[in-house]
Every structure is written in C-alpha cells, then in structure tokens.
C-alpha cells in the first residue's frame, strides 16, 4: 500500500510539472447566488415553495386588493468567501408564453421540486425590466397585491389575461464590485433544484 501511494504521488507531481496549458476554469472566483423563500400559503391557488411561483385568482371579484404575493430575498454563499454588497431587484409585467407550464404544479418523483420550470429562460435583465430597488440588508421580505404590482409596472389590470405574470429578477453585486447579471440557465431552472433562484413570479389564473 505504501509503495502504491508513493507511485501515485510521483505521477501527480510529474503531471503538474509537465503542465503547459492554462485553462479559464482554473482562474475561478467564488460567487453567491440569489435565494428566494416563497410563502406558498399566501398564494390564492395551491403552489409549492420550491416552484418559485405564486398565483392570483381573477375569479375573486376583489382579487386586485385582497390577494398577496409574498416572498423573502436572501443569498446562498456555501463557501463563506463571496461577500455580497447588494442585490438589485428588477420587476416586469409579461404576457403569457405560447407554452405555459401546466397547472396544478406537478412535483418531480422526489416530491420536492416541480417537474418543469415555471418561467422562461434565460433570466436576462431586459429593457422592459424596471429597477425596483437595491437591497443591502438580508433577508428582505416582500408582499404585493395585484394592484400594487400593476402600479409598479404601469400596467392596466383590466388588460391582464389568464397566465400573464409579474416577474422579479436579481443582479448580485459582490463586495469587489463584480455584478453577476446572469447565471447558467440550468442553475436558474426550478425543476433542477439548484441553489440559485434568479427569479420569482406570480401568474394570473381564473379558476372557480
């Protein structure tokens, strides 16, 4: 066993001494990711916290002021070496996609995460996304009615249809000034269960 370990170390040292190429991935930096805790109980229709989607039910005549979309913003930093200066929070109103996720939300076989992502990817900050605020104290809690979100985005509630949605996106600013404006799509996909919540949103339904 001792001889085997010695030979192994010799091979490792030889491989390191013969290295002639520098790779981009070797010059890595620890980075935090946004973390969202969704209050699923506040949703007007059943949902799951892991899905990062809540619902407003337009079947309620008072839905504009009686229903709430509630969530908490924080960040993941497993290494403890990725200091966050602030998180920029953006908000937008969006018309329904051509292919909308099925409802009710279906969980994967592990019964933890949804079996499909709930909002389109990539999660890119676009011209239609409005900077809502910059957060530098965590966690930060949010609570919005449909009327409040419509006011924030300049949206007429009377023109909203089923499966339209409001979406919040995040840009992480690290202590050294680095701005992380977009994460890998797989990391932002709710169905994968990765430790990155780069968006959270609320959809409109009309269910009796």
TrEMBL record:
The lineage's top-level taxon is Bacteria
Q: What is this protein called?
A: Lipoprotein
